[in-house]
Amino acid sequence: MTDHFTIDSEILNYAIAAGIIDFGSIRTQYEECERMNLLDSYEYKIFESGGRWYCRLPDGRRIKRKNREDVENEIIKIQKERKKKRRSPNAKSRKTSSQNGIWQNSPAG
To answer: Domain containing 61: what range?
Structure first.
């Protein structure tokens, strides 16, 4: 399996170096896909009313912008912050638990 992976990565590196594959377009497609995933996972709908675009925030407030893309950019910013917060408490809790001496308070053998 390692040999197969090595061959695939060599072919990929060659294709990028030779200009067969445009790394910039792959990055753009990846970022667009990530953007769509963040928007799709947002629980509130974006809607238009009176020439303005709106969306509800998790805390109950509303975003109001002139165009849809600006609302989407705000949602993406919120989703990225939420994603970061979901990851960081786990790392903090492990760090905090070891700092609180959970293992140090166990009886010595």
So the answer is: 43-83
